[in-house]
Amino acid sequence: MKKLIILSSLFLVLTILGCQKTTSNDTDSSTENENYRSEEDTDSSEISCTVVDTGQESCSNNTDKMKCPNKGKAFYGQDAQYVGNKLSYRDNGDGTVTDVNTGLMWQQDPGAKKSYEEAQAGAQSFELAGHDDWRLPTIKELYSLMDFRGIDPSSMNSAEGLRPYIDDEYFGFEYGDLSTGDRIIDSQWATSSVYNADVMNNQECFFGVNFADGRIKCYPTKRGKGYFTIYVRGDSYGENNLVKNSDTISDKSTGLTWMKQDSGSGMNWEDALAYCEDLELDGKSDWRLPNAKELHSIVDYSRSPDATNSAAIDPLFEVSSITNEAGKKDYAFFWTSTTHISERGYDRAAYIPFGRALGYMKEFGGWVDVHGAGAQRSDPKAGDPDEYPTGLGPQGDAIRIDNYVRCVRSEG
After folding, report:
1. Torsion of the alpha carbons at 288, 82, 350 and 159, rounded to the nearest 10
2. Structural domain boundaries of the chain?
3. 60-110: per-residue pLDDT in tens?
4. Which pTM does this prediction carry?
5. DSSP strands (E only) in 100-168
6. Residue 163: burial class (beta carbons within 10 Å; 0-12, 13-18, 19+)
């Protein structure tokens, strides 16, 4: 395994602080790589929750890989054209890995799958590398490891030519074992983030990461086959420090500033990229469509339509309500700039539902929340959603294509 140490980033590790969630009404705000966001772009003394880059390196159009376009051209502004805090790990040589960006120390190898009960209880007695203060990670902590250079196996029955959505040069990783009845994509990993509502008609679930197919879904807490589990230690990660400005919301913990309002209507992926690139707001014109990790950083997992009658986001943000496929009041899916690469190609992009992550399942009477508010799935970048009257995939994921937009910019 690699033992690379990015020396220039060590000062950041030493200054990482625990993230304290606060909100304020204070109105004071402070070629491919041309938009590189360096540590000098923001005041590092304020940033306590570094958003780690997705790792995505290639550009694409609605179907295929392409040369990254110039500013003003179609498909400009996608993930690979804005490079952030690059994925960087240190193999400690003792069964642990340190994330140089977040300062979190991780168990390196998950070993065999565990039941969710075993995953929860195991942290209390877990000891590794002379440490006994391990915990089951939150969804925001585990998602910080997501690497969007991965390839979704989709319907493949072999792992040949695939790449997981986690750096397997540092972390132990396995695809599903076909000999036991698993699918290739059955590599779901456990977190401590239990949904405050339920899915699939009264099933309790937790938000977990699938490092085989590159998604967040809410998985049943009662499941025979179990989940991969790695424990983490270090200061808490992923809480927001929000400041309400006139037309924007600043997150002092990440150094990102967001539109307070959303786009107010849906659009396809190409138009979403252009919408943010063309946006002028609060005297600024350097807005962009957020990547998957940036957008995920503002999900509030304490909120959901069924638990709090709200979107899964802090109420400082204004969120458009919609009528969903089941005819209920709900909240939209939001595009990211991150292409969800699969064995089919480059025709999908990642989105996050801030309302119910609906799916059509006959056994549950039609449209139900199957993956939870705050999941991360993918939609076709373009097309007609009417071609998917009962969704797509094993849980009938709702296909909307015309998703909403909340643009972001970096302070500094």
Report:
1. 170
2. 87-238, 239-410
3. 999 999 999 999 999 999 999 998 999 999 999 999 999 999 999 999 999
4. 0.89
5. 105-107
6. middle
